Each structure stands twice: as C-alpha cells, then as structure tokens.
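[09:14] KT: can someone run the structure on this one? pasting the chain below
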Amino acid sequence: MKKQYKWLLWIGLSCQLNQACAIYSFSGVSLSKKIKTFTIQNIYVDVAKGPNNIDHLLIERLEEQIQKKTTLSKTENEGDIELEGKITAFDYITDHEKSTLSITVVMDYTNKLNKQVSFYNKKFTESSPVASDLDEASEIKETKKMIEKIVERILGDSIINW
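[09:31] RB: done, structure tokens below
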C-alpha cells in the first residue's frame, strides 16, 4: 500500500513540475508563448560626450541578446513587446586621482499582452573605474562593457523578469 502512495505522490509532483515548466522556461525567459515579436524603437542620445555611435551599440546589443535568449522575431513596428529609451548620462567623475566612467540609460518596456509587467522611465546606471587619461579606443572598449551590463539589467527587468 505504501508503494502505491509513493507512486501517486511521484505522479502528482511530476504533473506539478510539468505545469510549472509551461509557465517558466529553464532559460530564464518568462514571456507568454503568445508573444512572438519584439521592436526596439529609437534610443535617443541626450548627452554631448561619449562615442558617436553609443545609441547603435545599445540597440545592437539589445537585439543580439533578445534573439539569443528568446525565439522572438524582430519587427520594425508594433512588436508584441517594445523597448525604447534614451541615454541620459555619459560622465567622467574624478575624485582624488581616481576616475570613474558612468553611463545612465532610461528605458520604457511595453508588453502589449501583459501591461502589468511594462515599465516606463526606468533608470539603468553602470559605472566603472577608468584611467584618467583614457584614449578613444579604451573609452569605446569600456563603453561596450558597460552597455553589456546595462543590457543584462534591462532584459532582467523586462523579458527575463526575475
């Protein structure tokens, strides 16, 4: 009789796990299966400093990571989810012979099928210590690293939604 209860318990737990897997993906992405497309609207640059292509670096990295981590297709307009934002700060801060590069991005995330998880005007800031005499190539390299971290945080708060 005990074996029968253990077997029923095992079946019950397996069913529960299977249902949970339908909601949450093991890849960490928590989007409805109804969501098929994404759109990245404009990323505006609201700063005078920084690499000329900083907006393109951010857009490209967002697109790459979404396509890598999901099965969503990119569309130019009216995606099931949309990202839009602006780069509001690109600053060098020097304090007692130490320099720090800081980038702030303000993003809007719209999930058209689940408006409750959408967010607007959310700030993402990343800072990194840098040499006080940073050359252009090093600045671009450091900017790319920081954008990578910002993108991970944007996706963590939107698509992955942990």
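[09:33] KT: thanks! Strands lie at 37-45, 73-74, 81-95, 98-111, 119-130.
[09:34] RB: yep, looked fine to me
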